[in-house]
Specification:
elongated, mainly alpha, Outer membrane efflux proteins (OEP), two-stranded parallel sheet, about 400 residues
Length: about 400
């Protein structure tokens, strides 16, 4: 089936689009979206960007979306061509040996196997299956754009939170250094305590600088995804990360939904239908001892086996997405406990220090540990939300 686009090529196109769909639909469309955003920023200040806004802009600027829409139009044209080919084949085969063939019929008669395929509606069926698969791939691409864009959005949120927490930690370290210097001057603190406090301040500054760099990188990635100028200013408006427990999720329903909607299954079933027609034609035209006859039979066996395998692969993928979600949830819950302990440790060490029962180093380490726990908790909350989004879309996209 030379005209059939291989499943591998289709999936490479779609999976590639999930990781790189930042180009514009076309030059004019991109320019309009970009100019509108820039004009708004110039008039009203920074762009107020919600999650939905970010996904919408990224979708409008997707080159792969344009390619799929164009492919759907082409499939419709191919169906009309397939219908015409069937009519020519039927007309040719209905004529007697003495009747004159038209130029189109003469051309088709040069390859009788193709004529039989056309008469059996193979090319119309092929166009229909390609259109159905492209429409399903379009849904898959939309889900992929949503996951990628929200992931980048969350990365900016995490970076903002890291800056906020590191600023608090730096202020605490600087205050602790001020207190230690006062104690050192009146002889109640050692030089080692002063050095430890100074080191803590330097580390806090380094952490803050690193968080600022991470924030800028996250900003650039999001701007690139949205096809906005790199010097654009924006403010994220959806700053609250929600936690929906996984116990509210029905795994069995998710599996059944995926089996009904995943493009891999649609492709396998469509390929089987096409192969049935091709095998029927080859068996009718070629003798059973010829290579073409045997090859067609083997292709049909493979196509029949690919359907249940596709169902199995999809179920496996959904289950893996679910386990990844459970893993992310467990890690998040453990971090929540760690955060509670870090807060209590910081509180107790401050009390002990105020009563002369702990050192400056104890306080500094407790404060630094609390800052890291707060940042880690926010990072894991974002990771959980991404894993849940992937699972929610497992009826269209996989976790591979």
């Amino acid at each position: 089936m030379k005209k059939i686009i291989s499943l591998t090529m289709v999936m490479m196109l779609i999976l590639g689009s999930l990781t790189n769909v930042s180009a514009a639909v076309d030059a004019e469309g991109t320019e309009e979206v970009t100019e509108e955003a820039v004009a708004e920023a110039a008039e009203t200040g920074p762009l107020m960007l919600s999650l939905d806004d970010a996904v919408k802009i990224a979708t409008e600027n997707s080159r792969e979306m344009w390619k799929i829409d164009d492919g759907i139009k082409q499939a419709k044209d191919e169906r009309r061509s397939g219908r015409d080919a069937r009519e020519v084949a039927e007309s040719m085969m209905s004529k007697s040996l003495n009747e004159e063939l038209t130029s189109a019929e003469l051309l088709m008669s040069s390859d009788y196997v193709k004529a039989l395929l056309a008469k059996n509606g193979y090319y119309m069926k092929y166009a229909d299956t390609q259109q159905a698969q492209l429409e399903k791939n379009r849904e898959m691409l939309l889900a992929g754009i949503e996951v990628e864009t929200k992931s980048m959005y969350y990365n900016v949120l995490v970076a903002e939170k890291s800056i906020e927490i590191n600023k608090v930690n730096l202020n605490s370290a600087e205050e602790q250094l001020r207190v230690v210097n006062l104690k050192f001057n009146n002889g109640s603190a050692t030089k080692a305590e002063v050095l430890n406090a100074e080191m803590a301040v330097q580390k806090a500054k380094t952490d803050l600088d690193s968080a600022s760099d991470d924030y800028r990188i996250a900003q650039l990635n999001l701007l690139n995804k949205l096809e906005l100028p790199f010097d654009s200013e924006f403010i994220l408006t959806d700053t609250e990360l929600k936690y929906v427990p996984s116990e509210e999720i029905n795994l069995d329903e998710a599996i059944e939904k995926a089996k009904e909607e995943r493009p891999e299954i649609l492709t396998a079933e469509n390929n089987l239908e096409l192969q049935k027609i091709e095998t029927h034609v080859n068996k009718a035209y070629y003798a059973s001892n010829l290579r073409q006859h045997k090859a067609a039979v083997e292709k049909l066996k493979d196509a029949e086996l690919n359907v249940p395998q596709a169902y199995k692969d999809v179920e496996l993928d959904v289950r893996k997405s679910y386990l990844n979600l459970i893993k992310a949830e467990r890690t998040l819950n453990n971090m929540e406990k760690t955060l509670e302990l870090a807060r209590e440790a910081a509180r107790i060490n401050k009390l002990l220090y105020d009563n002369g029962m702990a050192t400056t180093l104890d306080v500094l380490e407790a404060n630094a540990g609390l800052a890291q726990a707060e940042i880690g908790h926010y990072q894991l909350l974002a990771a959980y939300n991404i894993n849940k989004l992937i699972f929610d879309n497992s009826n269209l996209i996989g976790s591979k």
